[in-house]
């Protein structure tokens, strides 16, 4: 399987090279040159597989240059760090399914991909006798999940930029209390978009990228999307056991990585009727789906900070398919967007968007009310991100198709919002016990490209 760029200006690369490259060298995002199709017989044959074995089956289709036994070992060790035997258990609450994706070490769904990516990096760097400096931006959850994915690993350093004071206190502590020498936290005085722009600028500086062997962990890395495709299959197989039903997934969306994995699963032939794209007040993607209006607004801070994003980096991957795999059209759109802050779509394109997605923006008040009502009715605590998705799902009921809501974080990670909603502090899983008392390390920096670049130069391996 070869990988191409959404911007169309690179020679096709292997899976291994795609993982190491992160962002394509022409500024685009990498995608498989074709998406394998899964027929119903194959889908049925996957029914009995454990999460790990299903992951082997799905991922090996795209990662055919890693020997199967090696891939299997990487997948198996990656999910050893999860504290639930099923990895991604699914529960039914009053007509909707909740897919719990937060049983990894940092209690958010990002561990599902980043535990694997960390192990893949270590494996590939050893094989290539290379080193890597990972640079990434986080609105909260990616950072800690990435740090936990690579802490203490050989030949890797990691630099994570987070918006100072704009993550939840627990999110910041989960990053800054990791004291391994290869871990560097930068608290940037700005928004998540500022952090992401700095990281993009560093990656677009090709000589710098090469000299310091920059590696990406934010959801532009194809391996992350790929690892997330697995749980769409896993959930489907548990909910629609005859493999004859179409389902709806509700996905709390920020950077469009998680829902794009669902889109890949749909293109592979998984019977998904619709992907429900749930946003908070930062609703550019909802405006895009519902009105064809993709125009940038300011970032609003909400109780679901991991979704406080306007420009979603993985959206480009979807655009590539929306434009019938025409990289020239992708380049044009981004040129227009850079100039005017908006993109234009034909009515035919707008209709096709609605074949794949529906969307709902859920405000803060609705989010908190959903946490509170769901707790009263089901004695089950939703974290604020999951609550956005659940609220969007409940608003689309009644519906003939099973509705699966992705639960993206443990409520304890966002205890303050949950307490406002329910009056109760969620019980803390062992991973967070006493975290406030642990020693921590972090550098506070202005949102300035040069300052960040110098810091990396000084600390890089
Ligand atoms: C990252 C994150 C999201 C958004 O996922 P994207 O892939 O960025 O769309 C939603 N909820 C939580 C808890 C997250 O950490």
Describe this structure in words.
- The structure is a single chain.
- By secondary structure, the chain is an alpha/beta fold.
- The chain has a domain at 90-107 and 228-422: Rossmann fold (3-Layer(aba) Sandwich).
- It is 46% helix and 15% strand.
- The chain has helices spanning 15-21, 40-45, 51-62, 68-80, 110-128, 141-150, 169-176, 192-204, 206-211, 222-239, 257-267, 284-291, 315-322, 327-340, 347-356, 364-378, 384-396, 415-422, 449-459; strands spanning 3-5, 30-32, 90-93, 96-100, 132-137, 156-163, 183-189, 214-215, 247-252, 272-279, 294-295, 342-343, 357-361, 403-407, 443-446.
- A hairpin with a 2-residue loop joins strand 3 (90-93) and strand 4.
- The mean pLDDT is 94.
- Bound molecules: pyridoxal-5'-phosphate.
- The site of pyridoxal-5'-phosphate has 17 residues, from helix 11.
Largest sheet: 6 strands, mixed
Bound molecules: pyridoxal-5'-phosphate
Unreliable residue stretches:
none
Count every helix, treating DSSP H or I runs of 4 or more residues as helices.
19
Q: Tell me the CATH topology of the domain at 90-107 and 228-422.
A: Rossmann fold
Write down the CATH class of the domain at 90-107 and 228-422: Alpha Beta
Kindly estimate the percentage of residues that lie in beta strands according to DSSP: 15-25%
Strands in their spatial order, largest beta sheet:
3-4-14-9-10-13
How large, in whole angstroms, is the Cα Rg? 20 Å
How many β strands by DSSP? 15
CATH architecture of the domain at 90-107 and 228-422: 3-Layer(aba) Sandwich
How far from one another are the termini? 31 Å
Q: What share of residues is helical?
A: 40-55%
What structural category arises from helix and sheet content? Answer: alpha/beta
The quaternary state of the protein chains shown equals single chain
Overall form? globular
- Give the integer mean of the pLDDT values: 94
